[in-house]
Amino acid sequence: MLRYIAKRILFFIPTLVIITVIGFVISVNAPGDPVERMMTAASSGGEIGSQSRSQVEQKKYWKQKLGLDLPVFYFSLEKLSYPDTLYKIYDKNEREALCRLLDQHGNWEQISTYYNRVNTLYLSLVAFNPAVFNLEQYDKNVVTENFNTIKFEALSLKSAWQQPVIYSKITSVRKLIGGYIFLKEFQDELDSVRAAYQNIMSHETKWKSYFPVIYFYGNNQYHRWLFGDGGIYSNGLLRGDFGTSYQTKDSVSKTIFSRIGWSLFFTVFSIIIAYLVSIPLGVKAARNRGGRFDRISSVILFGLYSLPNFFVAILLLMLFANPDVLDIFPASGVKPNEGFDEDATIFQKIRLTLPHLIIPMICYSYSSFAFLSRIMRGSVIENIGLDYIRTARAKGLTEKAVVWKHAFKNSLLPIITIFAAVFPAAVGGSVILETIFTIPGMGLEAYNAITTQNYPMIIAVLTITSVFTLVGYLVSDILYAAVDPRISYS
């Protein structure tokens, strides 16, 4: 058996690699800017030092913390005109503009000079304060508006690549600068930008855009995502570190481990309850195939199965958690709003928690009754018609012994397959039910992550669910051989 398990685990390795690659690709190409999200979260959360840093310093800090200052993968296929350091341009619009310029002209040395001079001009304008000059001869509101326009045009030059647009913006900035004596110092910088752009067109090497080249990177975002950066900002996925939450700035792994307990509790216990009810029902229905119990139970169970769990949840809340009808159970949460007393015993905590769990547990369990009982019924009926059952009856065994001692065990294979799904379901939780009942599990966390575009949390749930699915398949294979002697590990 150990050899079989080792072989299956080896087969899981390429699958896990594919899963991590898919998760990483989704995280890299997800819409929105992670740096902007983290800066916003840090400012709203009062992160230490976030207010004292300049915007440029904050962006640099979060790029390093999230690993976005590294190339994406171990290698990249590029054009010969592209440098191997283009990934250092973080802004997507600016990087796209540089790529367009490279496709048009092919001379990175001149293009990088032009980009650096535009960036220098913009940073100089940002650092400049017109208020220190005597502006009595000007309308201050007009000065402020024009200076903001100059900064905006200088910034937009960094993401412009069409020749008419670039010349138009340079001309616009030149005209606005020329209207104020105190801005004359920027005239030379603007002239150097124009000269640098003209130098691009006069030293074109378009032929470089037609030859491919492969660049290799030892340290990259995917490598850091898997293995970490030595514990500076990340320990890596393989060490259980799924990154930083965009919403709370806390470790995603910490949030998952604090939430998964409730999802695991409701999923496992609801499956146990469903099995304890469904298996006897399925066996009894199989023994009385076509009889009154079989027909009545089928109608009732399929009626329950047809009701959506969110509808049943709301209906039960309206009936049994409504002060105007029956105020028997709490409407939300998994413990009293005021919490537990400091000196409360474990039994007192269970007594106070139990009322919060009854309605959610019913909603988790009822829909499985029909599904599991019908599978068990069909499997028992199939086994009852086989030769070994007829042999058992010929030996004089009672019908109860024939069914429960012989047919029952061999009828468990389909049930085992479903039981293996407990693992991934425990991670993902029930998004709808946990949201309705405000259960602090992975379902509610996944819902919040989707609504707030908290991609590290979404990718973590996807990755862990995939891993648990593989574990579920392995467990089911082992249980198959344990239940049915005809199945061999070899």
Description of the molecule:
With 490 residues, the chain is mainly alpha-helical. It folds into two domains: 77-216, no CATH class; 252-483, MetI-like fold (Orthogonal Bundle), CATH 1.10.3720. Helices cover 66% and strands 2% of the residues. The chain contains 20 helices and two strands. It has helices at residues 2-29, 34-45, 55-66, 92-105, 108-127, 140-157, 163-178, 185-202, 221-227, 252-287, 292-305, 309-320, 346-384, 387-394, 399-410, 413-419, 422-428, 431-436, 442-451, 455-483, and strands at 75-79, 212-216. A two-stranded antiparallel sheet has the order 1-2. Helix 10 crosses helix 13 (346-384) and helix 19 packs antiparallel against helix 20 (455-483). The radius of gyration is 33 Å and the shape is elongated.
Morphology: elongated
Judged by helices, strands and strand pairing, the structural class is mainly alpha
Number of helices: 20
Strand count: 2
CATH superfamily of the largest domain: MetI-like
Rg over C-alpha atoms, rounded to the nearest angstrom: 33 Å
CATH architecture of the largest domain: Orthogonal Bundle
Q: Uncertain regions: pLDDT < 50 for 5+ in a row?
A: 48-52
